[in-house]
């Protein structure tokens, strides 16, 4: 449904409404009373036409900077390393290479600065530690056992630090997740049917642990279970989806707690069949759900090798992971999509963006770019959840990314389906641009609803299971307190169409009471435990009738 009742009404205001039309309008209105934003379809803006690298990996930091990096072995990038620095790596095409393969983007000044990674970060993984430090793991060649840390700063001098033998196994196409105790788990990677932790549990723990599920889901010719979709469940176990099915996994003792059914159709959804997945926004005492969307059907990878680009999957599977007998419920997207990114928006909607209509992930294997994002409203009735948004003009194919910003925009970058930087004479040239997608909730026509958080101050620390008083102001007018929500979103590490550690919590709340002229307060409860929200930084939003405030940073511990 693309129009709100108001818009339908305006469009028809020279026609005398018949009783039937009135009834229809009323039904539409009742059904859509809380989806005001569906009248507009989002806007695109080009932020920078050349950031020097192709944003293959992205992480938002609590300083409102985004760390991005691609690969060190692409050849020369379009941005020089700082202070005349160079690297020499004999495995690379450019020797020496005095260009940067990582940059920091500053949202406020809309500018970048080059950073220096010493070793190859290609197809790696990462997560923010509870103190806001980005820990990135693995990569290729000289980088495959390396752990790199980046401590956020605002003085524009901080840079990557490297721990040379930080990993027990080589990690290339692995997935990381932050754990309730503040460590990260690093799962899988090419030909790695195991997991390990960073930092290690004790100084004596110098090992990785086998994970049979990764053997079982591995098709040796296609390796269809890379970059598994990993989510921390509310019971402390990990939901791990690879290829076409999932397990619930106790990483403390290596036990598979439960096996989920194969996703209907049996098509693979993880790399290189690259669909995407999110833990749907959740509320205390409600079932936790996972949504897996898109991907490439069986045979697509071999097909692409032979120049046949099969249409992407147009289905999503949704599952309540803690039900006694969990079953996938299938839904159909407006179009098929492989290599899409799924981004949780502050109001609890899911944005599906980037990617292609046919082919698979891998060099030169994608076709038919999908320019239009789609919004998915998890709480709408099945059949009325998807809404197509306005398109951009830039193909965002293999190696594209998208992350949520504090102001509610979604930062989009990357796309390089080639082995090197190739800017000319190729299909889908290497892309060095950065764009922002502004969902319709940022449209000026909703300014009359937009809340603004007055307190707590950004960067406040909060505890678990505590009452949190949030004060906010709204534009003058009567506020309907029942339509106010407070949400908390974890900043994710995004690469290869999967946002590691992405989660959104609705905080359960009490009444909204006025405390001044157009100022209100709402008391909400912070999450009960690190299983629901691992310690660290989150963006906190006040949402009124689906229109989010600008976020503030809170640190939970
Ligand atoms: C892509 O870039 C590489 C490295 O610069 C170059 O050798 C190759 O010829 C380019 N491919 C095309 C199709 O231009
Ligand atoms: C491909 C590309 O974007 N090349 C750019 C590299 O940077 C210079 C300026 O520093 C531009 O002129 C090129 O267009």
From TrEMBL:
Classification via InterPro entries:
Gal_Oxase/kelch_b-propeller, Gal_Oxidase_central_sf, Glyoxal_oxidase_N, GO-like_E_set, Ig-like_fold, Ig_E-set
Give every Glyoxal oxidase N-terminal domain span: 56-441
What does the UniProt keyword field contain?
Signal
Limits of the Galactose oxidase-like Early set domain: 450-556
Q: Does the keyword Signal apply?
A: yes
**Keyword Signal (UniProt):** yes
Q: Which Pfam families match?
A: Glyoxal_oxid_N, GO-like_E_set
Q: Which positions carry the signal peptide feature in this UniProt record?
A: 1-39
Q: Which CDD domains does this one have?
A: E_set_GO_C (cd02851)
- Mind telling me what this protein is named? Galactose oxidase
Q: Which organism is it from?
A: Penstemon davidsonii
